[in-house]
Task: structure prediction
Amino acid sequence: MKPVQLLDPAGDLHPHPDWPLDITPELTRDLYRKMRLARRLDEEALALQRQGELGLWLQVLGQEASQVGSITGVRASDHVFPSYREHAAAMCRGITPAELLIQWRGNAHSGWDPERYRFHIYTLVLAAQLLHATGYAMGVQRDGADELVLTYFGDGSSSEGDANEAFNWAAAAGAPVLFFCQNNGWAISTPPQIQMRAPLHQRAAGFGLDAHLVDGNDVLAVHAVTRGVADQVRSGSGPAFIEAITYRMAGHSTSDDPGRYRTDSEVDGWRTRDPLARMELLLEKQGWSDAAYLSELDLECKELGTEVRRICKELPLPELDERFDQVLAERPELLTEQRAGYRDLVASFVD
Amino acid sequence: MPVLTLSKALNTGMRRALEDDPKVVVMGEDVGGLGGVFRVTDGLQKDFGSQRVIDTPLAESGIVGTAIGLALRGYRPVCEIQFDGFVYPAFNQIVSQLAKMRARTAGRLSLPVVIRIPVGGGIGAVEHHSESNEAYFAHTAGLRVVCCSDPQDAHWMLREAISGSDPVIFYEPKRRYWTKGEVAEDATDSSVLAMTKARVVRPGTDLTLLTYGGMVQVCLQAAEAAVEDGRDIEVIDLRSLSPLDAETITASVNRTGRAVVVHEAPTFAGLGAEIGSLVTERCFYRLQAPVLRVGAFDLPYPPAKLEEQFLPDIDRVLDAVDRSFAW
Result:
């Protein structure tokens, strides 16, 4: 199977008979803008981590097209179960920089109300969320709702038992879930050839999932394929699987040293396939970007950067006291005693 | 008041829950047409349909993981894990996801998921079918861990677990599935003991036996036998293993001055260690002897022909009682 591509790295369009897309200046500019903003957030967050303001950051650099293309291919009413690197997708749902950063600053385990954004909290244990998505989709099915569930995961996650249980179960139940794999080339330091013999989309087909392969650095292709596949899932055809071939330009996390396991030439090769660069070429070739649009976008990115730096340092510190009420619906007596003991101890110290 | 087996009491408890709330779904391996390997869900799929009583693929992590998704969608899943020794593939979903979601979201999300697990030995089963793994789950904040021991409790604790807001690991002692007892199915909530409470099942003055599940009956028999020695022993069914009802436990031991904890699980790092510590800390000046533990040996569960020797029985309980009085 050849990855679906509508826009090549040179910025030229190649219409695909199976995935029609009305490529308007508005759509192109909107997708480009969303990717630019995500990249700016990523750059600021990386800088903040290097300054010691964030404990950890997982860069989305290079994967903007996979995320922006897919999240804009489903409806705002569709529920999303992300992994932990879906910052671009989260931003598209309106999740704010403060809500995104608070987890990585260490002030909370999650930053946003999942129901408000129809976007579940990040899941750090690989593939666990794929089962949550499947269960949620079974609920959608039972409710007879006109919704689907979009869930993100990576090539590494696909080796987990939970991923395989989710593919199988979703297919058997005909649940309206769209599994979106960002195959970004590296599971920390492990390349796909060590993890798997059968390509992911082929494996998905074996589970009975409607499987697709797309150029994950082509936002137009990802958008067109996701939208088309989502329509099929919504029509009751059962779950589907999209494998987006993309590349993690940075390390797995800010604690990672990708220089230990991959070559500069590999990274440079992918740099020529940058998802933003080809959109810039397209906009230019088509005459869809003028100075006003670009300067306005530059300004918006700059303001986002300023906002990210400002809010990071203002994020509210958590209180240990509150944690005692967040374990069970009703605080147990033993926990009340433990809290009181801690309070007494703290109160006993003279400053 | 109907007399039901513990297994039937669980069945009617789930039936009531399914009737009362259309969001309740029962799910697990073979729970539908077969009615579960212990027939606890017998007839439920016939009456509520396969959308409410769901035969799942053979995937324990999947059962708990999808139950989490269903709960996030507003459903109240009641999962059955077929045997205690099969819960381990679901361990990650239980301790990392189910137990933690409320804390991870600072209280925004609740996961009302009940995981029913037939627990313990005494029925001559093959390996992985007689495990007592309550300590693993009791150690995890964010879970309620309860264990029923008679039909009335089985019925009402299950109904309470299903209607509550928290994830509950609900243990059902296998050896007690066929025990009969009266079940007040239409009792008002106020006349039913909350599942968070321990219950004095036999009042006594000289020593407290603290136990739960399949060992409650063993302890009651031991207490009766001890009467011959002139000892009046109190037996407490803990019911809630996490959180513990410290009030009932300490009130009893403060009166009797002696405590022995009895459970089927291996002794090392078991619930007995936690309870012994709690009692020592709170009843130290009233204690006439150290808190003693009677548990299984620290061995993997043995073949069925050895389980009678492996598990605590009346003699081992009475031996611990003697040791306490000899102090």
